[in-house]
Amino acid sequence: MASKSILLRPHSLPITFLSPRLPFPKSLLSTTPSAVVGNLSFSTLPYGPSLHKGHLPNPLKLPNPPSVQDTTTNNNVMSLDEDAFTRVFDISALRVPSDLCFTLENRLRGHLLNWPRIKNIARVPGDEIDNQFKTLLPKSDVNDESGTLVAFNRRIYGKDEGDGQLLSPVLYRDKLARAFNSKGYVKFRNLAKISRPKKKKKKAEVDSYNGNKREKREAGRNETALLVVVTEEEDSEGEDLGSLLGEEFKVKKWRGPTRLLLLDERYANKGTRELPESIKAVLEEHGGQSTMSEFELVKCKLTLFYNYWQQNEILEVLLPKGMIIPSAFETVGHIAHLNLRDEHLPHKNLIAKVVLDKSKPKIQTVVNKIDAIHNDYRTMQLEVLAGNRSLVTTVVENGLRFQVDLAAVYWNSRLATERQRLLSCFTRDDVVCDVFAGVGPIAISAAKKVKHVYANDLNPCAVDYLERNCILNKLERKIEVFNMDGRRFIETIFASQTAQSITQVVMNLPNDAAEFLDAFRGIFTRNHRQRTLPRIYVYGFSKAQDPEFDFHERVRIALSEVAFEVEMRKVRLVAPGKWMLCASFILPESVAYAKTGSLL
């Protein structure tokens, strides 16, 4: 048996290469709780690729599932065997002339593979060059289909730069003419040698299976599948369609470029007589439209690697049967923030490894929140599960950059939409007072739009990052930063004779913000310069059956006032039965000028 390998890349035309047989380790998964491997019938499983279908390249022995105690104690040394998720599928393909491949793809769409992230059209290695021209090449070039032959093939189309050969002067001049823009010649050959760093040479590693040195193969982010065309020796190559479609379809030596149309999985290991009449009719109709009138049914092996499978598909195999698959997580810069359930904790390192692999290169660190927020600084206790241990990152939101240290300050990316909605309520003449500013996601964003911003936070680390972010976004002249208790800040800023007239007040501290509303009672009796009654936006949580009514009553009780209008809005469902709400209202005049207010 001989085989030709084709590397499939999603969302792009496949690039062909000749690959040796990939080695697979003897161990399947060093910590696989429940892996289902074996040859299962396609009819018993849903359509499409699955880790429960196909077979492993080599028979591997499944280890015994580890106990919960062993999993907990050995969490730090767990490893995931990526080769254990390699699956091989037997499929069939039609070898057709390249000039008819797209037409036939549209006509046979319902009979093709149609798997996600897998193209229905694949290239056959070495078929871009006619057989009569292969004799003009050196003997070594004809045999090495993945080397010089492919480079020569690409050279025909002027695309061989990067294969180790330079373009001919004519093709290079044509390339420069197409790449000319306002900055001059893009990627000029001589300038590239000066400006670009030298490429690192790939280190050779010792093959643990045959003891020979081999080039280290690291699957790129798009190297997800490999198609191997299985060909019989000599004249038995492929299935002869001549007996079914006529003598003009009899298999001959191919001349010119061809393509493979991957057929549906239900046609795997079937002969030409078992193909539907609709396929035969289409092939017969298009048989005379090409310079080559041959069609060939070939058998293929489609190998799907670890990079092909989605996060939920891998976790479904790794986690015990019946366990909820964790799928959602919060992204903060390069950090993925998980909120794992108690049932997931014995497998937290495996989950983190899969999340990290499937989210690279954007995600570099995976953390899990250990406990709820109980301190005044709103900092979270986080455990680093995978990746680098740095919790300092940069977040881009609304065109602004924010430096954040998740170990010392609070940040919630899920409130980005709410922050954007809040900013839409401000005008250029507003003066905003952010009582619980944190690192400044609202204060700094508002500073780009409003007249002036007063920002405060009790956490000294948050204030430090707030000042950094003001400078980072060049808005330090429009923001005044304070580090004090929220109640004291409200009384101080409204009592200040130099402060501008405040029109908007934001109190984004859902746990305790409503308790600070009593600081507004009698706030204007100490400053007669303030004439405009500010609009207050206060956030809070509620677990009541009617959360809007519950939070509405808490706001009225805190202000000791009933006769004023409050606009209630549900922000998001934080947990089952727990809502985050926003109450906005104009500070009642009876509250602002009340005689009961007093300075602390």
TrEMBL record:
<keyword id="KW-0808">Transferase</keyword>
<feature type="binding site">
    <location>
        <position position="419"/>
    </location>
    <ligand>
        <name>S-adenosyl-L-methionine</name>
    </ligand>
</feature>
<dbReference type="InterPro" id="IPR025792">
    <property type="entry name" value="tRNA_Gua_MeTrfase_euk"/>
</dbReference>
<keyword id="KW-0819">tRNA processing</keyword>
<feature type="binding site">
    <location>
        <position position="508"/>
    </location>
    <ligand>
        <name>S-adenosyl-L-methionine</name>
    </ligand>
</feature>
<comment type="subunit">
    <text>Monomer.</text>
</comment>
<dbReference type="GO" id="GO:0052906">
    <property type="term" value="F:tRNA (guanine(37)-N1)-methyltransferase activity"/>
</dbReference>
<dbReference type="GO" id="GO:0005634">
    <property type="term" value="C:nucleus"/>
</dbReference>
<comment type="function">
    <text>Specifically methylates the N1 position of guanosine-37 in various cytoplasmic and mitochondrial tRNAs. Methylation is not dependent on the nature of the nucleoside 5' of the target nucleoside. This is the first step in the biosynthesis of wybutosine (yW), a modified base adjacent to the anticodon of tRNAs and required for accurate decoding.</text>
</comment>
<feature type="binding site">
    <location>
        <begin position="457"/>
        <end position="458"/>
    </location>
    <ligand>
        <name>S-adenosyl-L-methionine</name>
    </ligand>
</feature>
<dbReference type="GO" id="GO:0005759">
    <property type="term" value="C:mitochondrial matrix"/>
</dbReference>
<feature type="binding site">
    <location>
        <begin position="485"/>
        <end position="486"/>
    </location>
    <ligand>
        <name>S-adenosyl-L-methionine</name>
    </ligand>
</feature>
<keyword id="KW-0949">S-adenosyl-L-methionine</keyword>
<dbReference type="InterPro" id="IPR056743">
    <property type="entry name" value="TRM5-TYW2-like_MTfase"/>
</dbReference>
<keyword id="KW-0539">Nucleus</keyword>
<dbReference type="InterPro" id="IPR030382">
    <property type="entry name" value="MeTrfase_TRM5/TYW2"/>
</dbReference>
<feature type="region of interest" description="Disordered">
    <location>
        <begin position="199"/>
        <end position="220"/>
    </location>
</feature>
<keyword id="KW-0489">Methyltransferase</keyword>
<protein>
    <recommendedName>
        <fullName>tRNA (guanine(37)-N1)-methyltransferase</fullName>
        <ecNumber>2.1.1.228</ecNumber>
    </recommendedName>
</protein>
<dbReference type="InterPro" id="IPR029063">
    <property type="entry name" value="SAM-dependent_MTases_sf"/>
</dbReference>
<dbReference type="GO" id="GO:0070901">
    <property type="term" value="P:mitochondrial tRNA methylation"/>
</dbReference>
<dbReference type="Pfam" id="PF02475">
    <property type="entry name" value="TRM5-TYW2_MTfase"/>
</dbReference>
<comment type="similarity">
    <text>Belongs to the TRM5 / TYW2 family.</text>
</comment>
<comment type="similarity">
    <text>Belongs to the class I-like SAM-binding methyltransferase superfamily. TRM5/TYW2 family.</text>
</comment>
<keyword id="KW-0496">Mitochondrion</keyword>
<feature type="domain" description="SAM-dependent methyltransferase TRM5/TYW2-type">
    <location>
        <begin position="329"/>
        <end position="589"/>
    </location>
</feature>
<dbReference type="InterPro" id="IPR056744">
    <property type="entry name" value="TRM5/TYW2-like_N"/>
</dbReference>
<keyword id="KW-0963">Cytoplasm</keyword>
<dbReference type="Pfam" id="PF25133">
    <property type="entry name" value="TYW2_N_2"/>
</dbReference>
